[in-house]
Structures are given as C-alpha cells and as structure tokens.
Design brief:
Elements: H1 2-20, E1 25-33, H2 47-55, E2 65-66, E3 75-81, E4 88-99, E5 110-115, E6 118-119, H3 121-130, E7 138-144, H4 150-153, E8 157-164, E9 168-171, E10 178-181, E11 186-198, H5 207-231
Helix pairs in contact: 1-5
C-alpha cells in the first residue's frame, strides 16, 4: 500500500507540474552595426576617433556618417535576414542606435521610418522628442512592434527605411553657439530586430487553468488515503 501511495503521489505531482510548465519559447535577435560602440546612451562622442572607430568595418549604412547637416538629409535602408518563422510570434521590437539626429532642433526630425512598409514614423518621432537629440548626441531607441506587423516578419526578411528631416543642428567651433541647419545628417551606429516566438506544437497552458487540475489531483489523493485508512480498521 505504501508503494502504491508513493506512486499516486508522484503521478499527482507530475500531472500538476506538467500543467504549470510554460510553453517553449525562442528568441530571434539580429543586429546590424555595432551595438557595443564604447560610448553610452546620452553621451556626445567625438567624430574622431570614437564614431569612426565604432563604424569601422561595419556594413552599410552603419559604416560612416550619412547625409549632411548643411546639404542632404539622411536617407538610408537596411535588411535583416533570418530563418523563416513557422511558429507563433509573441512579441517583436526594433532598436536603433543613432548619433547626431538633432531632434532638439525645431519640429520633428523623422520624415520616414518603416519596417516592411509599415509606418513607424510617429513612434520614432515621439521617442526623438521625448529625450536626447542635442548636437552630436548618441541615443538608443527601442520600439515594441504591434501584433498587426507580425505576419510580415514570418518570411525571414525585414526591410527598414529611415529618412531624417531638417533642420539639424551645428555647433560653432569658436564660442560654441548652437544654430540650426537646413538639413539633417547622422551616424547610424546599430539596429537590432528581436522576435520572441512560441512553438505552435506545444499549447500554452495558463497557470489559472492548471490550478484546478492541481487541486483535483490533491483531492483524489485525499480520498485514496481515507479509503486505505478505513480498510485497516
């Protein structure tokens, strides 16, 4: 009887534990550029040597400054490549490290920001205006992607497009006065796409649904023990 009771107790525990286990999940993370550039978010790195060193050897458009505060706005695109996704996408985010985007100038500085033709311009503009953006400043921005975009991520390729908008900012070499410029160039330091998935072959069992299973198993064990005790009288 003791052996049988131990067997039932083990089965009860495993059944409850199985109900409480989370579904298997995986993280896909693809980074282009240098996400450890050697200077901190909010700092003002020098073009020589900090920005040059951070961008040296990186793929376009992360290998050098793009556009010019005086003559042309930054207008670039890049592509994330990864294995096609057959599992359920739970969440996704897009992170951008950028120096000298000059959002402290008048108006908005993002003319276009898209992932697979899905418009994220307003969201990045909000981030730009909320913090940072002084002349030459390096800032990191991360956007959580809406679930409506998940279907576009399943093909294993995500195309990002970014166009900035003037005015930009420049600091005078003598006296240090900051003034606005007609255009807005910048240095793209890195970009990361992160996707969390769940194996569609393993159903997710929420903990609230597993608790009744656990309680039922304990109740059954209690009945069994009472019957065993009664049979000994």
């Amino acid at each position: 009887m003791t052996k049988m009771r131990h067997t039932l107790l083990t089965a009860t525990f495993l059944m409850a534990l199985g109900g409480l286990q989370p579904a298997a999940a995986a993280i896909i993370s693809v980074t282009l550029g240098n996400d450890t550039p050697g200077f901190a978010d909010g700092s003002v790195p020098s073009v020589f040597p900090q920005l040059i060193n951070a961008q040296s050897g990186q793929p376009a458009p992360f290998e050098s400054g793009k556009g010019s505060d005086l003559f042309a706005n930054l207008d670039e695109s890049w592509i994330f490549n990864y294995a096609a996704i057959g599992d359920t996408i739970l969440s996704a985010s897009l992170t951008l490290g950028i120096a000298d985007h000059d959002s402290q100038a008048t108006g908005n500085q993002v003319a276009l920001y898209e992932i697979d033709n899905n418009d994220l311009t307003s969201a990045l503009n909000t981030g730009f205006e909320a913090v940072g953006g002084g002349d030459g400043e390096y800032n990191v921005y991360s956007l959580d992607l809406d679930s409506g975009l998940f279907a576009d991520l399943t093909d294993g390729m995500a195309i990002i497009e970014l166009t900035l908008l003037g005015p930009g900012l420049q600091t005078a070499l003598i006296g240090g006065a900051v003034s606005e410029t007609p255009s807005n160039g910048a240095h793209l330091i890195f970009s990361t796409l992160t996707i969390e998935t769940r194996d569609i072959t393993i159903p997710a069992v929420p903990i609230p649904a597993a608790l009744p299973l656990f309680m039922s198993a304990l109740f059954a064990l209690g009945l069994f023990r009472r019957r065993i005790s009664g049979s000994r009288v």
